[in-house]
Amino acid sequence: MSANHLGNCIRAPLPLLQWRRDKSSDRKACCRGLTLIELLVVLAMITTLIAIGYPVYGNALDKAKIAKAIGDIRTFEKDIAFYQLSNRTFPDTLADVGRANFLDPYGNPYKYLNYANAKKSNKWGGTKGGTEKPRKDKFLKPLNSEYDLYSKGKDGESKEDLNKKESWDDIVRAVDGGFVGLASEF
Q1: pLDDT tens-place values along the chain, 186 residues long
Q2: Which of 49, 51, 124, 170 has the most crowded Cβ, counting Cβ within 10 A?
Q3: Does residue 153 come out as left (phi exceeding 0), alpha (psi in the -120 to 50 range) or beta?
Q4: Which pTM value belongs to this model?
Q5: Backbone phi, then psi, for 16, in 5-degree steps?
Q6: DSSP 8-state symbol, 103
Q7: What is the pLDDT, as a whole number, of residue 33?
Q8: Where are the beta strands (DSSP E) in the chain?
């Protein structure tokens, strides 16, 4: 604001008619509000920032869920190893190691398949005789030699073969624990 303009806003009292006329012109100069165009520009800027930030937030959230599932699977591996050392056999279910109904970050139960014991009984899915078979890599070779442990991932769907699209988002344990991560990265 210029010094002349400030001088007009702060001055000695004027006669009533002149004061009213000057007050309306000062209001336009001093107390001007936002126009509709300015509001639309600000709204467009806020929308653009949200459009940029939301995918970044979504990606960070997905990475955090994957990291949580990997951590859970590593913890289960330790529980299973302790059970195997204590009982000289692998558990039939995750309930045997105290992890019954434990959910992955996507709200689905973790999948465990003990096929070390299934080979002995000729029944897949543990000694209870389930129908699940070992997970296979892109060369159709089993991922592990003792047991499978995985999360079905974001979509909650999975196939035996990691080449299938439904399995790409699964968090898998492979190479007998040498790899734990996204099936699409294995």
Answers
A1: 455 555 555 555 555 555 555 555 555 555 567 788 999 999 999 999 999 988 888 889 999 999 999 999 999 999 999 999 999 999 999 999 988 888 999 999 999 988 866 655 554 444 444 456 788 888 888 888 889 999 998 888 888 888 888 888 899 999 988 999 998 888
A2: 170
A3: left
A4: 0.68
A5: -55, -45
A6: B
A7: 75
A8: 111-114, 147-151, 171-174, 179-182
Contact status, residue 177 vs residue 77, Cβ threshold 8 Å: yes
Residues 6 or more apart whose CB falls under 8 angstroms from that of 127 comprise 92, 117, 118, 121
Both tokens of 49, joined, read 């920032």
At 39, list the tokens. 């509001």
Residue 136 CB burial class (10 angstroms; 0-12, 13-18, ≥19): middle
Dist. CA 145–CA 158, nearest whole Å: 20
Find the helix or strand (DSSP H, E) in which 16 lies.
helix 16-30
Nearest alpha-carbon partner for 106 in 181, 171, 24: 171
Sheet holding 111-114, edge to edge: 111-114, 147-151, 171-174, 179-182
The contacts of residue 184 (CB under 8 Å, 6+ apart) are 168, 169
